[in-house]
Each structure stands twice: as structure tokens, then as C-alpha cells.
Amino acid sequence: MTIKPWFPTLIYEARLERGGDTSLRRALLEDSYKVRAHDRAGRRWCEKNYPAGYTSYASLSHLHRTFSTFMDLEKKIRPHVLRFARRLDMNLGSGKLQMTDCWVSVMSRHAAHSLHLHPLSVVSGTFYLAAPRGCSRLRFEDPRLDKTMGAPPKKADCRAENRQQVFYDVEPGKLILFESWLRHEVAPNPTRGDRVSVSFNYDWV
User: Fold this and answer.
1) What are the pLDDT digits (tens) for 128-137?
2) How far apart are the C-alpha atoms of 181 and 203, rounded to whole Å?
3) Is there a domain that residue 15 lies in?
4) Cβ burial, residue 9 (10 Å; 0-12/13-18/19+)
């Protein structure tokens, strides 16, 4: 008998900071609050669409082109994206993976990201700037879940490859990459501190 695990879903996790140097992260955190303070249009959008939180996604989503700190972050992220692409055996041909979107999210208490994906992009990810102890984790969902009608539930102690959801703990300095079609969400932040992150998309251009 032969059983093989076809069609795996890969998620990349790494730390960007080396030697305990947190200077870039601290600068990014400071600039993230500056972006929020000056982004009136974004704050108005969030009042209607993102209660208890702030995101520059709908207003300032190209921070890697306008702020030197976010430019520096892109330079640090790029090698990881290329490493992930090689692990996925992506054939880029004459094209390349390029960061096309980059935005800030500040999740105050009770703010949440509902289940979603990033259509038309190739690789997406998040770099965490602040993550209070006990804040919400990042949840990924099995992309086949909507096709398992009539299937029995999984055992509580099922093997990792048979799970239908997985949670990633978040902490400052952590980078998480995933293919953009993978659905994910963040439950409401139960802490009083801000959960702050920089998210981004890479497209094939």
C-alpha cells in the first residue's frame, strides 16, 4: 500500500532581525503611528469598514514607495520571498516577483480581520511590529474546506497534514509568508495593547 501527501499547502516563517538589532522594527512602529495620524481618509474609511482598528489598505497601500523605512523593510523581505518561491518550484520565466502593495494595520482591542484572501497576487505576508501577550493569532484555513460536504470531522489528535485549520502565534520581528490564494483571518484582539503589523503582496510582473 502507498499513500502520498499530494497538494501540500506551504507557509513560510522566519525572523528578520539578526543579532538582536530591533532598530528597523522600532522605526517602522513609529512611522506606522505617524501614517495613522496623518491619514484622515484612511481613518474615515476604517470608521465604517474596520471598527476598533486602523489600516492604510484603502488609502495608503504603497508605503514601500514613499517611506524609507518601508523601503528598507522590502529589501529585507525580498530574499525570503525568493527563497519561498524556489521552495514552491515557481517558474517565473522572464518575469519577477515584485512588491506591489504594502500597508499598515493597527488592531486595537476588539479589532478583527475577517476571513479573506488576496486575489490576483502570488505571495502575501505580514511582518509583526507589536504583538501584546495574548493577542489574536493568525489563522489559516484548508483551501479545500468548502469542498468537503458530507465528510466526517477530523479527530482531535489528527496528523498535522490532515488539519483543516492552523494557527500561527505572532510576535514582534516575525515574518510570515503564504500563497495569496490561501484564506486567513485574525479573531478580535482581546488585549488592551495594539497589535501592529505591516502586510504586503508580491505580484508576478
Assistant:
1) 999 999 999 9
2) 12
3) no
4) middle
- At 109, which CATH number? 2.60.120.620
Of 93, 89, 106, 72, the residue nearest 189 (C-alpha): 106
1 within some domain = no
What does the alpha-carbon distance between residue 178 and residue 202 come to, in Å, rounded to a whole number?
11
Asked if 129 and 78 touch (Cβ cutoff 8 Å), the reply is no
DSSP state of 12: E
Place of cell 495594539: 194
d(CA 5, CA 90): 19
Range of the domain at 122: 23-146+162-204
DSSP type of residue 189: P
Is beta strand 123-130 parallel, antiparallel or unpaired with respect to 113-116? Answer: unpaired
Q: Which secondary structure element, helix H or strand E, spans residue 79, and what is its range?
A: helix 68-87
Judge whether 49 lies within some domain. Answer: yes
* pTM strictly above 0.70: yes
Residue 41 vs residues 52, 113, 121: alpha-carbon distances, Å: 16, 20, 25
Could you give the number of structural domains in the chain? 1
Q: What is the pLDDT of residues 102-132, one digit of tens each?
A: 999 999 999 999 999 999 999 999 999 999 9
Beta-carbon count within 10 A of 113 CB: 21
Residue 6 within a domain:
no
